[in-house]
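[Automated response] Your request has been received and processed.

Submitted sequence:
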Amino acid sequence: MIITVQMKDPDSLHEAIEEALYQELAEINNLGLDEYAHNAIFESRREKANAVAAKWFEYKEYLTVQIDTEAGTCTVLEVAR
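Generated structure:
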């Protein structure tokens, strides 16, 4: 049996990306960049992460998975364009 599930959580992707960026950019804080440069790097990397995630997250909040009970698998489906 194939079961398709669409999940919606408008905050999960946003929060996960920001948390990862804060951890990654903690190292950059030691370089002495001003706030403008730091924010520019943050925004640039956030846009890139959102662009990559768009392959699987529709409108940055919908994720669809397909469960195959016979194969015992769960697959994240790409967004239909």
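Summary generated for your ticket: The chain has one domain: 2-76. Residues 58 and 79 are 6 Å apart (CA to CA).
If you did not submit this request, please reply to this message.
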